[in-house]
Amino acid sequence: MKDNLDYVGINKKMWELTADIYEADGFYDALQRVQQENFTTFDEVEQFIFATQIEIKDKDIIQIGCNNGTEIINLKKNGANNCVGIDISEKFIKQAKQLSIASNYKVEFESTNVYEISENHFGNFDLVYITVGVLGWMPDIKKLFQIINKLLKPEGQVFIYEQHPILGMFNPEPPHKIDSSYFRKEPFKDEILPEYIDKTGQARAISYWFPYTLADILNACIMNKLQLKYFEEYSNDISDTYKNLKNNEVRFPMSFTLIGQKI
Fold first, then answer.
1. Residues in the chain with pLDDT values less than 70
2. Could you confirm whether domain 41-188+210-262 is CATH 3.90.180.10?
3. Separation CA 199–CA 194 (nearest Å)
């Protein structure tokens, strides 16, 4: 970025506050959920991907932006080998460790800025796993994909299941008016917490969200020697922020999957 703001540090403070709210309002339910025999985080899209495109069993996997760890725990449950989850929030990582113990699935969790991840992780993984909302918190998309390449073993893969960049054009508050350019470069500044956790909308903390076009993401992948193996767009909203737009008569993409393979 052109200015000297510590975007990662600012966003970390917001996520620590968010973790406090989640611990009070949602953590107990997560604790119960991970212990259930039918526990899963997969929706229909991921069920299809892991049934037809990516083999999980016996693979070493790292999740960037793992939050409370339920998704990487689910990958471990589905037969993955060594699993690591990283996140900038120390408090969410603490919760993730507790959830891993409760689930009886051993996952390693580490609180770290992905841009400063230890070189000890380089070349260790068959799969880098990224899900909804993570890319928008990354101030440098090109550097992120450089690190992804370094984390992967030869012929390892990155799998991304994200909200579609076109949603950045819509105001996140209903009725979701279009109020921003698809080609916006400057980050969005916000003072409210993610609504899926802070349901009352009362807490306040500054955060920055970084818009990227689909071309930005694809080119960052390709330029860092990750060959595009699979790409698909969907009309389902995985962010839960824009659920009111799902039933529009005029349909548009709201999420996508991408698989890239290290060359």
1. 1-4, 194-203
2. no
3. 8
